[in-house]
Amino acid sequence: MKVEAILSGKGAGVVSVVPEDTIATVARVLAEKSIGAVVVSDGRGGLAGIITERDLVRALARFGAETLDHLVSELMTRNVVTANVGDSIDQVSERMTRGKFRHVPVVDGAKVIGMVSIGDVVKHRIEQIEAEASAMRDYIATA
Ligand code: AMP
């Protein structure tokens, strides 16, 4: 199964912030949207970085309450591992495992068109296993 299938299931579009936003803004967006990561847009539709709840927790341990006043540009990860719609879900899962992160933005050229989270990957894997088990049961019942 491809990344395309995940995006068509959850809809295209991605929640983003800009490097000049504060961490307070990121915390509010993550809470309002019930998500764990936002992409950081370069303001021209391109990808400047990614910032996740894990970055916020690390910064809280380091800077305490003043974390909220820091800028996204200070805490974001700039070297972002991405996927294309044609990549397989297994490929994306492997990138997450190797990089020890749970979010992979989907890009079309320089433009970000979606986000795949580890939750999406697990959901599709379970659906796949259930479909295989059901096919196996049908096969046994009719054999
Ligand atoms: P996560 O597990 O997604 O919360 O992210 C753990 C760490 O990896 C954080 O420092 C993120 O900024 C970083 N990170 C998350 N996703 C990616 C990605 N696709 N490419 C590179 N770094 C990432």
Describe the structure using short key phrases.
two-stranded antiparallel sheet; binds adenosine monophosphate; alpha+beta; three-stranded mixed β-sheet; 18% strand; 143 residues; 49% helix; CBS-domain; elongated
Architecture overview:
The chain has 143 residues and is an alpha+beta fold. It has a single domain, classed as CBS-domain (Roll), CATH 3.10.580. It has a three-stranded mixed beta sheet with strand order 1-2-3. A two-stranded antiparallel ribbon has the order 4-5. The two termini are 28 Å apart. The relative contact order is 0.19. The site of adenosine monophosphate (AMP) has 16 residues, from strand 3, helix 3 and strand 4.
Unreliable residue stretches: none
Q: Supply the CATH class.
A: Alpha Beta
The average pLDDT value, as a whole number, equals: 94
CATH architectural group: Roll
* Count of the separate structural domains: 1
Distance between the amino and carboxyl termini: 28 Å
Bound molecules: adenosine monophosphate
Please count the helical segments.
6
Give the C-alpha Rg. Answer: 18 Å
CATH superfamily (homologous) name: CBS-domain
Helix content: 40-55%
| CATH fold group | CBS-domain
What about the largest sheet? 3 strands, mixed
Number of strands: 5
